[in-house]
Amino acid sequence: MGNLVTGLMITLMMICIGLACAYNDLLLVTSKTCYNYTEILILEYRGEEPAKELMFAYPIPPNTTWQICDLVKANPKPIAIMKRGPNTLLLFTVRLVDQLPSKVTIMCNVTVLELRSNLNKDNSGSSYEIPSTLMVKFTRATYWWNYTAPEVVEVVDEIRSALSEEDNVYEIVMAIREWLIKNMKYTLHRERRGAVEAILSREGDCSEYADIFIALCRAMRLPARRAWGWLVNIRGEYATWLGHTWPEVWVPSIRSWVPIEVTMIGEEKAPNLGEVDTRYLAFLI
Question: How many CA atoms lie within 13 A of 226 on its CB side?
Fold first, then answer.
């Protein structure tokens, strides 16, 4: 069995400001940033039996509403490129020479758009307009998003009772985020705990905020999923990044997944549904 050690480098290539073009009627692209994304993987085999090669799959940043990834180069060349939902996986076969560590280099150009949103209660649409295929897959209860637990059901009932239209996508999203703002305390945790435990403790970091949000959305028949990646901070020619998690919801009026920030709201005005800036670089969804 192989042991995989990874190293990551992200550098800034270019910034374009003031594009002001329409992504659609409800989302406006105001700027974009292109990142040169290089990841170096060091593979070390630690199995008891000798091996000649190692086969594995590794993701590259996905294409999303606000992000476009172009694979520039991979060394060695992948034997296949696979799609798993929104994610793209590169399949490699690496030869092991005298059981010494092997290196794999992946280079991509990732263009991240800054989106400003005109979505509101009147134009977001109804949950009844969402395709049944999305409903089946993205409103299921899971281990992390167990909305059948009594603790979650209680919160769902509390939020639903305050809605004027229980099928309005925008109203559902904003009501859930407002509940998080009023009831959760931001606290860093080393391990993911899931929606039920986070609701019980009323504390957590971006992972718990996202899991609660997704569980509550799914309980209210609104498809939601989890994005993981980085918040990139640009300083001169260099970039630093912090791991971050945020949810996405399906908006029927634009027939697309859009991000919603539910954690980093603080004293600043919380971004609207669908708004995202060029610091958000998604790696897995």
Answer: 20
Strands 53-60 and 87-95: antiparallel
* Number of domains within the chain: 2
State pLDDT tens for residues 225-282: 999 999 887 666 666 788 999 999 999 999 999 999 999 756 567 899 999 999 999 9
Closest CA to 277 of 74, 60, 30, 93: 30
**Domain check: are 99 and 22 in the same one?**
yes
Residue 257, beta-bridge partner list = 250
Q: Which domain holds residue 14?
A: 2-115
∠ CA(274), CA(279), CA(283), 5° rounding? Answer: 85
Per the listing, tokens 């020619």 go with 237
C-alpha 117/C-alpha 260 separation (Å) is 11
Q: In whole angstroms, what is the distance from residue 278 CA to residue 22 CA?
A: 16
Element (H, E) at 159: helix 150-161
Structure tokens at 66: 């606000």
Q: Please tell me whether residue 168 adopts helix, strand or coil conformation.
A: strand
CA distance 18 to 170: 27
pLDDT at 140 over 60: yes
Do residues 48 and 28 both lie within one domain?
A: yes
Give the three-class secondary structure for 284. Answer: strand
Supply 91's token pair. Answer: 């399949």
